[in-house]
Amino acid sequence: MKGALLVAGTTSDAGKSVVTAGVCRWLARQGVKVAPYKAQNMSLNSFVTADGAEIGRAQAMQAAACGLEPAADMNPILLKPGSDRRSQVVVMGRPLTDVDAMEYRDLKDHLRTVAVDALERLRARYDVVVCEGAGSPAEINLREGDIANMGLARAAGLPVVVVGDIDRGGVFAAMYGTVALLEPADQALIAGFVVNKFRGARELLEPALGMIRELTGREVYGVLPWLEGAWLDAEDSLALDNRPAIGTRAPYGRQTLRVAVVRLPRVSNFTDVDALAAEPGVTVRFVTSPAELDDADLVVLPGSRATVSDLAWLRATGLAAALPGRAVLGICGGYQMLARTIHDDVESGAGRVEGLGLLPATVVFAPDKTLGRPVGAAYGCPVMAYEIHHGVVTAEGGEPFLDGCRSGTVWGTTWHGALENDGFRRAFLADVAAVTGRDFVPAPDVSFAALREERLDALGDLVEHHLDTGALLRLLEHGAPEGLPILPPGGVRGAP
Q1: Which long-range contacts (CB under 8 A, 24 or more apart) does 448-452 make?
Q2: Residue 495 has what pLDDT?
Q3: Is the backbone of residue 154 left (phi > 0), alpha (psi -120 to 50) or beta?
Q4: What is the CATH number of domain 253-443?
Q5: Superfamily of domain 3-232+453-478
Q6: Where is the CobB/CobQ-like glutamine amidotransferase domain positioned along the sequence (predicted)?
C-alpha cells in the first residue's frame, strides 16, 4: 500500500503525538514501511539525530514506534521559543535565525518549500507517512501561510483525522467548530474524528457519536480510552499541567527516593527525568516553589531555552536560596545555572551574570550551537547521550562527572538522555541515596528501553483495538471520501 494522512487536533495536547505514534506502531506491526512526519513543531523538547540534526523529541519517539532511526526529514522545521515573542527557527536540523511572529511570516514561502520537499522524500522512501499537525487547524488567524495543518493537507492532498480530548470537556463542540470554521476546500479534506482520553461507560457516549456523525456528515473512527503513562516523550510543557507525581512502583529497598524537578518557565527536555520515574521506589514531581523542596532527596534543574532569564526566575521565587546544602543535579541549562559565572552575549545578550556558584565552573555562550551524540562513562558504566546547547561550560575544579563536574552533593552535565542508560542511572541513584541517608536500593533489572517499547506497543494496541483500522487503511489508500458536506458558515479565506 502507498499513502499518507494527517492527524490534526482540536487543541494543543489533544493527543496528536500519541495517536500518531500509535498508528505508526500498529502499521509497523503489520509489516508496513511507515515513517512519521511533522512539518512544523513548536517545542523545547528536542533530540539529536545520528548525523547531528535537531528535531522534535516527539518525532524521535514516533520514529522509534516505526522501528526507525530519527531523521531531519521527519521534522524539517522546529521552533524553539526563547521568550513570549521570539523563537529560534531550526530548519532541517540546523539553527537558521531567531525571529518574532511577524518576522516569521517573511520566511513562510521558503519554509513551505522545505516542508513539502521533506514530505515528498519520505513518501518516496516509505509506503506510508503518518503526519502530525500542530495546535489546531481552526486557528483561523494563522491559516494564511499555514504549513503545518490544512496548508500542508491541501499542498499534499492529505486526508485529515481530527483528534479531540474528551477529558477537557466540550469535545463535540470543538469537533464541529473545527470543521465549520474552515473554508470549503479545507473542509473537503476533513475525513472524520477520533475521541481521545475517554473515561467511563462507552454506551453513555454512543448517542453523542451518532449526533456528531449526523451533524457533520463525517465518521468517528473510534474512541480511545484513557491510558496512564501515555506521557512518554511529551511534546511541550502543557503536558505537565495535569501530570501528577509519577513513579508509583513499590521500592526495591525500604524507602523511596523523592525527586523534585524545577519547572522552569522555559524548561526544555524535561523528558530527561522520565527514566527516573521508571525506577521502582522513585517518585518524580515538578515544582515551582521552595516549600515543595522540603522533603526532596534530589532536586533536578533541567534544561532551559532561556538560561539567564530562568536563573533570574529561580532567584525571584526563592528556589535558588533553597538549593545550597541539597543534592542537586543540573542538566544542560540547569548545569549552566549552577556555575560561578555566565557570559551570555548570544541567547539573552545579558553579558556577565553571576551563577548560583554551586559548581566550580564558568559558562560562555557561543554563537554556534553544539549538537551531538556523545559517549562516555561514569561510575564505571558506559553512557550514550545527546547534547544541544549554546552555552559552553568549563569546569575549573571538583570531580569529573560525565562531561561536567561534581562538587559534594551537586552534579552537573550538558548531556541529555544520560539517565536512560540503566547501569549509570542505578549507580547515580545509589550515590544520591548514600549522600542523603536514604535506605533506597535501585532495582537491578529495570530496562528503560524495554519500558519505552512496552509503552509504544500499548499505543499500537489502542489503535488496533479501539479504532476502525479498516477505515484508516481506506483513507491511506484512497484519500478523503468525496462529497463530504460543507458546514456553514464555510470558514475563512486562506491560502492553499
Answers
A1: 448/274, 448/275, 448/278, 448/420, 448/422, 449/420, 449/422, 451/278, 452/61, 452/64, 452/232
A2: 42
A3: alpha
A4: 3.40.50.880
A5: P-loop containing nucleotide triphosphate hydrolases (3.40.50.300)
A6: 258-423
Tell me the residue length of the chain.
496
* Confidence at 496, pLDDT banded by 50, 70, 90: very low
Give dist(CA 44, CA 215) in Å, integer: 38
Give me the residues paired with residue 461 across strands.
Answer: none
Place of cell 524539517: 76
Check residue 254 and give its pLDDT.
78
pLDDT of residue 248: 53
State how far the Cα of 128 lies from the Cα of 139, in Å rounded to an integer: 27
Whether cis (ω within 30° of 0) applies to the bond prior to 489 is yes
Residue burial 211-236, b: 16+ Cβ < 10 Å; e: rest: ebeeebbbbbbbbbeebeebbbbbbb
* Cα atoms found within 13 Å of the Cα of residue 32, Cβ hemisphere only: 23
pTM over 0.85: yes
CB environment 469-488: b (16+ within 10 A), e (fewer): bebbbebbeebbbeebebbe
Fold: same for 3-232+453-478 and 253-443: yes
- The C-alpha cell at 369 is 550551537
Give the three-state DSSP class for 368: strand
CA–CA dist 496, 487 (Å, integer): 19
- Region 335-343: what's the mean pLDDT? 98
Grid coordinates standing for 205?
A: 457516549
Q: What value, to the nearest 5°, has the Cα angle with vertex 216 and ends 212 and 218?
A: 85
Residue of 88, 81, 122 whose CA lies nearest to 107:
88
Return the amino acid letter for 462: L
Q: Which residues, at least 6 apart from 337, have a Cβ–Cβ distance to it below 8 Å?
A: 301, 304, 307, 310, 311, 314, 330, 355, 356
CB 466 within 8 A of CB 164: no
Domain ranges, ordered by start, for the chain: 3-232+453-478, 253-443
Active-site amino acid positions: 332, 416
